[in-house]
Amino acid sequence: MPPKKPNKKAKVSLNESSGLSGVSGASQVNHSELLALIRSIIREEIGAAFEKFQPQLDALKGELDSCCQKLGDMEEGITDMDCRFAILETANGNLMKENKEFKDKIERMEIQSRKFNLRVIGLKTDIEKSDPIAFVTNFLKEVFGSELSCEPAVEIAYRIGQGTDLRPRSMIVTVQRYQAKEAILKLARSKGEIIFRDMRVKIFPDITPDVARKRALFNDVRMKLRTAEVRQVRR
């Protein structure tokens, strides 16, 4: 039996396979070296960039630390202000309470001090001359005459405020007896309008500004009652 001839195709295939394996291994080595080189270059570039911007970063860090310190100081200051504000609020509340108590007390004292006072409006300026007490006494007697149930013993009489030719200054009159004051007011209300020597005179109780403001709140109600002809019943 003749000997077999060697298979050339198989030999060529074996050689080709060995050559490709060598190329593939070399490619893998070159690829790894290339990646390592790229990483090295990137690290160097990043390091150089950081070195370039490091002073700015240090400056920013310093500013940030300073801002944090200032923020901490501000928080402490705000906390301290909150405590002081709470103390001041409490103190202010106490002062407002005391002030209201004092105002109410002064108001009561002023009302009491005006208890015997009358306010006369419409008397011409200087008509009382140098003796206002005598003038007011004669004025009350002349206006009310025998209708007065008691002697109008005038203790004090003086002008207040600023007046004009059309609206003379008001006169405050203090009588010695409370009953006399109430009798004069009652007669003045019953007469409505008092004509004295061609002067239209009105007599009112002498009230404090605070009482006057409170009464003014009811002006609309009084106008409606007058329009409806509803009269107040006085006892």
SSE diagram, text form:
Blueprint: H1 8-113, E1 117-121, H2 132-144, E2 154-160, E3 170-175, H3 178-191, E4 194-196, E5 199-205, H4 209-216, H5 219-227
Antiparallel strand pairs: 1-3, 1-5, 2-3, 4-5
Characteristic key phrases:
Alpha-Beta Plaits; five-stranded antiparallel beta sheet; alpha+beta; single chain; 235 residues; 5 strands
Describe the structure.
This protein has 235 residues and is an alpha+beta fold. Among the domains are: 57-114; 115-206, L1 transposable element, RRM domain (Alpha-Beta Plaits, 2-Layer Sandwich). It has helices at 8-113, 132-144, 178-191, 209-216, 219-227; strands at 117-121, 154-160, 170-175, 194-196, 199-205. It has a five-stranded antiparallel sheet with strand order 2-3-1-5-4. A hairpin with a 2-residue loop joins strand 4 and strand 5 (199-205). The longest helix is centred in the N-terminal third of the chain and has 106 residues, at 8-113. It is rod-shaped and about 140 Å long. The protein starts with 7 loop residues before the first helix and ends in an 8-residue tail after the last helix.
How do you describe this structure in short?
This protein has 235 residues and is of the alpha+beta class.
Helix content: 55-70%
Structural class: alpha+beta
Mean pLDDT: 83
CATH fold-level topology of one domain: Alpha-Beta Plaits
Integer-rounded radius of gyration: 54 Å
What's the name of the CATH homologous superfamily of one domain?
L1 transposable element, RRM domain
